[in-house]
């Protein structure tokens, strides 16, 4: 690994003694650069924060401070590893114009696919319990860390703009995907209708399955992670992203197109998890909006991957040029399967 320019400053700011050889890249996130810091008697997660994606780090700090104040961590059945303050009391540390932060490392298993319906059920329960833990906090207490993050009409507009301005030829497979996603206008209209019926809650808003850490034996959930998108949202967002990443027979990066189907047993397990936790707490409309959530979140990721491909891959990290196109194609097959259910 090349010399890490931030180590000395981090050591000063967090009163640590990290050596370069104790730092290694960690995890599968698409956004931040995440490292595991393995000291002899303790482990930390250190992140070099992506300011291109999150343009308002101060809003994230604000939301995290709300959580630190309002959520009794002892009452949560899992850990919420929020960043620790540096010696100036700040959750972010600015080093050479880059933002860094450190949070507790939670051991366990982080997976991109679950292997059975019990794991699906546990994930759903954990994310629903997270929403529940924040229900006493007015949604207006949270700031929008990415404006319009799950705003489907806005993402549709962004796709239209990318189609107009792209330097890539819209033909063949690209055209097929563009046509498919433009036809999802119906889901965009449904979004507007649900908006009039549902309350805003504190949601995690990025509940893909690898944003959760299971116990090593998968008997429970140890932690809910990736806490930058916690803000006001709809319950179906968090259910929907689980459907997208748990109830699909193939992972988000699979190109095994014919195998992309809905795993109904896992889908039912997700519903069960949300029902058990949300019974008598979530409104009837919120419970009824859950199936829409699966479709909507799959559709929005398809919009976003395709938009990014058309824009020249400026948002998501990729390993090869067509990867965002393939991610959008993967989501198209899943969305079709969800719509046929
Ligand atoms: C990003 O950071 P990560 O990989 O958990 C993205 C999510 C997408 C996801 C798709 C801030 O999440 O919205 O669902 O990739 N996060 C952001 O894999 O854009
Ligand atoms: Mg992540």
Give me the CATH superfamily of the largest domain: Aminoglycoside phosphotransferase (APH), C-terminal lobe
Strand order of the largest sheet: 1-2-3-5-4
Task: Report the sheet with the most strands, covering strand number, pairing sense and barrel closure.
Answer: 5 strands, antiparallel
Total beta strand runs: 9
> How many helices does DSSP assign?
11
- CATH architectural group of the largest domain: Alpha-Beta Complex
Strand content: 5-15%
Order of helices and strands: HEEEHEEHHHHEEEEHHHHH
Give the C-level CATH assignment of the largest domain: Alpha Beta
Query: How does the overall form come out from the CA principal axes?
Result: globular
User: Any idea of the CATH topology of the largest domain?
Assistant: Aminoglycoside 3'-phosphotransferase, Chain: A, domain 2
Helix/strand class: alpha+beta
Bound molecules: 2-acetamido-2-deoxy-1-O-phosphono-alpha-D-glucopyranose, magnesium ion
As residue ranges, the low-confidence spans are none
State mean pLDDT (0 to 100 scale): 96
The helix fraction, in percent, is 40-55%
What would you say about this model in short?
This protein is α+β, with helices and mostly antiparallel strands and 341 residues long. The protein has 11 helices and 9 strands.
Task: Tag the structure with descriptive keywords.
single chain; 341 residues; alpha+beta; Phosphorylase Kinase, domain 1; Aminoglycoside 3'-phosphotransferase, Chain: A, domain 2; 2 domains; five-stranded antiparallel sheet; two-stranded antiparallel sheet; binds 2-acetamido-2-deoxy-1-O-phosphono-alpha-D-glucopyranose; binds magnesium ion
């Amino acid at each position: 690994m090349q010399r890490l320019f931030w180590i000395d400053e981090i050591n000063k700011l967090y009163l640590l003694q990290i050596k370069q050889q104790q730092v290694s890249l960690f995890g599968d996130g698409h956004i931040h650069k995440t490292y595991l810091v393995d000291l002899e008697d303790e482990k930390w997660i250190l992140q070099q924060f992506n300011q291109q994606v999150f343009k308002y780090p101060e809003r994230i700090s604000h939301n995290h401070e709300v959580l630190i104040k309002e959520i009794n961590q002892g009452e949560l059945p899992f850990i919420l590893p929020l960043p620790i303050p540096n010696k100036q009391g700040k959750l972010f540390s600015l080093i050479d114009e880059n933002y860094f932060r450190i949070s507790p490392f939670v051991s366990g298993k982080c997976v991109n696919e679950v292997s059975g319906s019990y794991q699906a059920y546990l994930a759903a329960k954990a994310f629903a319990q997270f929403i529940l833990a924040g229900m006493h906090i007015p949604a207006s207490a949270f700031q929008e860390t990415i404006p319009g993050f799950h705003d489907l009409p806005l993402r549709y507009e962004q796709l239209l703009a990318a189609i107009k301005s792209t330097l890539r030829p819209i033909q063949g497979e690209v055209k097929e995907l563009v046509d498919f996603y433009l036809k999802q206008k119906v889901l965009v209209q449904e979004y507007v209708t649900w908006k009039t019926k549902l309350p805003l809650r504190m949601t995690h808003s990025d509940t893909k399955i690898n944003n959760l850490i299971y116990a090593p034996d998968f008997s429970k959930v140890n932690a809910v992670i990736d806490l930058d998108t916690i803000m006001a949202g709809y319950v179906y967002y968090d259910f929907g992203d689980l459907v997208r990443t748990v109830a699909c027979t193939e992972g988000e990066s699979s190109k095994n197109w014919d195998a992309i189907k809905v795993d109904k047993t896992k889908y039912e397990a997700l519903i069960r998890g949300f029902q058990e936790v949300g019974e008598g707490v979530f409104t009837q409309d919120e419970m009824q909006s859950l199936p829409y959530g699966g479709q909507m979140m799959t559709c929005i990721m398809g919009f976003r991957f395709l938009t990014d491909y058309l824009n020249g891959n400026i948002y998501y990290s990729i390993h090869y040029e067509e990867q965002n196109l393939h991610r959008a194609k993967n989501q198209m097959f899943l969305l079709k399967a969800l719509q046929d259910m």
